Amino acid sequence: MPKKQIFTLEYAVRCSPGILYGFLSTPAGLGEWFADKVDERDNIFIFSWNGSIEKAEVVDSELDKFIRFHWLTAPKDEYFEFKIEKTEITNQTILVIKDFAEKNEIKDQTQLWEYQVKELFHRLGN
């Protein structure tokens, strides 16, 4: 099986890091845009899409800065991460998403993230 490679996506967001972080790091927030239903038990998030269930562990986080998840079925060195940055000049909030995919699947994964982020922006009123 080909090794997956990391890719990064960036989106300008019109909201405070604190509000955005809530949508990225809580079951209620993630359930608004990322999955049909999200539960959490003992640092394990359970994501449901159309009856399909995936589990991810929070491996690292910093309040209002970033959260990194590891799918329990993925290799140890793979993760997906939501990072919140502020631009120095304009003080704009930037959402940085890091994920892994096989080289020939990066375009499809990017389109999936675009769809998800569009839903997030809709929920944020962007």
TrEMBL record:
Pfam families: START_2. InterPro entries: START-like_dom_sf, START_2. Residues 1-125 form the START-like domain. Transmembrane segments: none annotated. It comes from the Bacteria. This is START-like domain-containing protein. It comes from Parafilimonas terrae.
